[in-house]
Amino acid sequence: MSSNKTTKTDDWALRFAQWTTSHRWWAIGLTVLLTVAAATGIGKLEFSNNYRVFFSPENPDLVAFEHFQDTYTKNDNILFVLQPAEGEVFEGELLAGIEWLTAAAWKIPHAIRVDAVTNYQHSWADGDDLTVEDLVRNGAQHSPEYLAARRDVALAEPLLVGSILAADARTTGINVTLQYPELSLEEVPAAVGEARALAAEMRERFPDLTVALTGVSMLNNAFAEAGQKDAGTLMPGMFAALVVLMLIVLRSVSGTLGTLFVISFSALTALGVAGHMGIKLNPINLTAPVIIMTLGIADSVHLLITALQRLRAGSDKLAAIRESVRVNALPVVITSVTTVIGFLSLNFSDAPPFRELGNITAIGIVAAMIHSLVFLPAFLSLVRLRAPRGAAGRSGLQAVMGRLADFVIHRHRAVLATTGVLALVLIASVPLIQLNDEFVKYFDHRVEFRGDAEWAMDNLTGIYLVEFSLPAAGEGGISEPEYLDGLERFTSWLRGQPEVRHVYSYADVIKRLNRNLHGDDPTYHTVPADRELAAQYLLLYELSLPYGLDLNDRISIDKDATRVTATISEMPTGDIRAFLDRAQEWLAVEAPDYMQTRPTGASVMFSFISQRNIESMLRGNLMAVALIAVVMVGALRSVRLGALSLVPNLVPILMTFGVWALLVRQVGMAAATVTATSLGIVVDDSVHFLTKYLRARREQGLDQPGAIRYAFETVGSAMVSTTVILSVGFAVLAFSTFRINNQMGLLTSIAVVLALAIDLLLLPALLMIGHRVRKPENRNMKLKLSKSMAAMLVVVLAGTATLPAIATAPTDDPVARGFAIAERSDSSDRGFGDSVVELRMILRNAAGSESTRRLLISTLEIPDIDQGDKSLVLFDSPADIEGTALLSHAQILDPDDQWLYLPALKRVKRISSVNKSGPFVGSEFAFEDFTALELGKYSYRWLGEEEHGGMLCDVVERTPAYEHSGYSRQVSWIDQTDHQVRQVEFYDRRGDLLKTLRLEDYRLYDGGVWRTHRMHMVNHQTGKETDMVYGEYAFGTGLEDRDFVRGALERAR
Amino acid sequence: MRHLAITAAVLALVAGTAAGGGLDLSGFVAGETRWFPEEPAYPDQFDGLQSSLVLQPEFRYRTSNRRHTFRLTPFLRLDDRDDERTHFDLREAYWLAVAGDVEVLVGVNTVFWGVTESRHLIDVVNQVDYVEDVDGEDKLGQPMIRLSWQRDWGRLEAFALVGFREMTLPGPDGRLRLPLPITDDADFPDGRSDLDAALRWSHYLGDFDLGLHFFHGMGREPGFRPVIGTDGLPALQPFYNRINQLGMDGQWTRDAWLWKLEWLVREGDGDTFAAAVMGFEYTLYQLGGGNADLGLLGEFLYDGRDDTASATFFDRDVFAGARLALNDVHDTTVLAGAVVDARDGSTVARLEFERRLSNRFKLEIEGRFFLGVADDNAVAFLRQDSFLNLRLAYGL
Could you tell me where the DSSP H helices lie in A637-703? Predict the structure, then answer.
């Protein structure tokens, strides 16, 4: 082992590993015993079957609903929906069948009421008496004419149409109301079983009849059935997928087997403890085993990969296992702790199934941690464990990781920018997400209930009910004309709403009674104008109703409130909330004060479930994030890295919601909890990466790039492997029949993959940030520069030995000599720090007409010869471009960074610097004549010596090494006395002489810096000329880096 | 006349106090004539030519240690047709102090955010001076306190924006106006706030320039709702919502390509929505071996706001344009471009020509054309207001 610095934790972990591997039978025995003891609780597990489990007892929507049910009858229902293949339901045989089914439905356990078209209590006037009777009795014995008349009665009845009779009379329903004692979980399945048997019998009697079953009891039953279905399909599918994946990743049968033991033990332990705790299973908490197994694998895989790497490196088995435990114990414990924190934070959820999911999973994770640190090493020491054949040294994935590390290190700024922008775009898209909890759509089409409920909605009536209990003023107040009038208007307002399919209201009953008792005179189809009268009608009617068809489910016992039930269309829950708001607003404005109420019902409860859960989870999430950050700081012993780890921990989760917002848009209550479930998992990758990174920094003293490379090579492939396993494991949940699980699985899957991307790209790029400052060299640059740098190195090395001689002692190599002369000339200009100078440009065309520009040039020297200087050109005239400024950050060979400031708009615009050869403000100077003054921008060749302007000059050819130059080459005359450039000839891309530049009026400033004060450029091809006349230079003006940033352009003048 | 008096007073004051000191003066005086070839669409609107005089001097003073800068840029337009277009504004009137990495600016200032050409989507700090031009590039000065912090991780700017300014709109006799007169009193459904806040981070990394901002306060873009005016006739009342806006601007500069993106999510202006402008600018340098450059521009505009939000033309549009710069002594430039509504084909086209006549004089000709505008398009009210503008400016 290379490291001689080990921590206390490592010592402890090593001793621990020695114990488990040397007392392996004890270790195995203890863990198995623990598992068996826990697993005895599995027998106590039962499936819950009530949608109310999704709401905590304190949930205000549930409290309101229970209160409502106390007022009327507390009931669930089963709705038989019947549709003949052809024709209408008012046909003798079928009506007889309906009568049979109506009577038979009483056999369904806990049935307290059965409503059908046939037993609808039809009331009519018989002289002064009120007659109340079944709409159809003994249907098979009546003539078609009679039945047609009854059909017309039924279709005119607002209480029937849209509820248990379709407007086209093609479909009808038989509604069975059930009241469960709620003593046993068998009640609902028993009732549903009986209902299904009746439906089967009905289908047998009428082979052409479609029979569907819907209603609240069917919904409740579907929750249990979906869970059972999932248990039967998800778990085996998951197991198979994991075995295959592990064999691929580990390429070790015994390793795979050991892992399977670990995860099975963990899942069994968790389920067993859940049984002991009396937790009822539901589709949500039933996903816990899948999650536990997925997470348990991650622990084991990390241990196994290290052990196999050691084996491959030639270590013996026992040493390999112990070293693996030593290196991985801390990260395994930290990741387990953070994951446990994440899942335990689900206890903040308002929905009990999620709390249970969190607790069961937390138990399982702790079990997985113990089993992978105790059982797995002991197991491995018993079985044959060999490094996979054919893979000596680094595996393919490791090599890829190495290349990825190099890429991220070298291009960390680009990586930072790209991932940063992508992350920001995704995160900012999160507000586009829409919450939706249509409970029928919780189930996929494999669940019978979904198909039946949707068919019923298409053909007869909806399952989404909104209940209003409208209070009256005191006992018997429901007969008050003001109340009845309000009720009547509210009913018709509801009927006018586009979302509403049916309204059941007492107003219709009392209107009908009023008409009946006025000799069926249609003008009396109104609410009675007198309280006494209304109360009497109601009494008369109630006395006439048969058993089981009373009005107790519509009117409170004290007659101080009535119930209005609105059946609404299937629509996103956001729209339901809008509808509820409208209804309450209507009541507030239009109804008497005492009639105010709050809508309730299952649809209402589910409409608010996501918000309530998100609100309650927000606190939990914050606490989990804070706790995890504390754990990270403690584990990494670095506040800086602990804080930094928040980025890779939180960003992927936020990005996940962004991805979802862009791709899917709608999400249900899974959204509230997925942060908690994925947070703990997402943290794992950053824990592994950062612990390895720190180990390299602290134990091996590597710099940032070295430590990043080490982290990539040691833990990169394990991170990829576990990510694949985790994302597949959670993706398995997408096959759940239950949409919340399906969304939670997909969201977590996306989060895990994004977390890997962030950990391998953004995190190392972030770690590189501090490094840039101290970076002594730029490898990237060095590669590109290799040619001229090699030449320069030769010269510099030679130069330091024979420094005084270099300018005069001619070298044989013209390239080296050319460079040396240019370098000498360049260095005589350097060391000035910063300068400011005024410049006048005089543009002259071939005809001799002149035009002048005035500018101010500020320059900041960057001493590093690998980087170009920074300059700011500020225009003063002509008037229309006054204030325009050009900021350049010169690079050596890469394109310069340039920004243009447009004062009229106060806009800063980054511009392309490709335009090297374009004319600068219409002059004969190209941009590159101005900006390409860096030594490294050219390669050089010495051509000879020549007399120029009374001075002996070296003639040096320079060839642009940067892209997009307009020149094929330049020839410069550099004097041998002051080493200044006296003349330059520019040759165009075709190789023809284009321009000649003469540099005159050199002056020597303090500090030994030479500057020309007059440049004269002639374009030989157009005959145009430009003179540049410089003012006095000011050096050391106190300009700093921050005066050469884009933000400073605004105050450049 | 009142404006003229104010301007004269300000000028006299500045000239008096700083006479002879290191005061710099620049700016311009310009004469403009706009010609509307089509008949006006609404009663009271003038027909034909509209002339005006613009004065925008700029006074700058900087202390010798360059720590403190004072700047004053008053603006005055006198218009012969539209009283609402005759207006005075302070584009800039601030004191800027620099201390190390920190800059403090107190006073009236104009700020530009963004990278795209066809629409300045995220540019939210200053209110638009709509009577100047319909392109949103002329803006009213905004009183503010701005703190800037320049570090190697970028520039962070915090704005406290004091006082909300309503958009300037043409009067009943002006062209380019809405179908009905505008009431004097704007509505603020969420209440009016006169202290808005904004935070912006901007930086560049290699070829990437990036900006990120958050704005909280009165939305600058008004919506309009029909009301009965004080004279009992139908009118339009502008209303301003209180918004939260999170946005981003980025540009990737690679060779001759500029790739641009502006993007925001806004809350409070109708339903929460996202809007984006993305596009490119590609320049063909030294066209045909000469000195001229030809820039080609393409942008795609998306805006997800709903009917209850402030109005916009740019809901789903495509912009294509070209800029020809001759790079001659006169800086002759021609710009042509059009924004086309991808759904109904409504087109807003512009054509600009500018050329320097001398060191001080500059000529600009600008045409703006509303072509094939659909009846229900947001710019339907401008369909008869295509115009040609001639401007001659003299630099001070």
Answer: 639-644, 646-663, 670-699
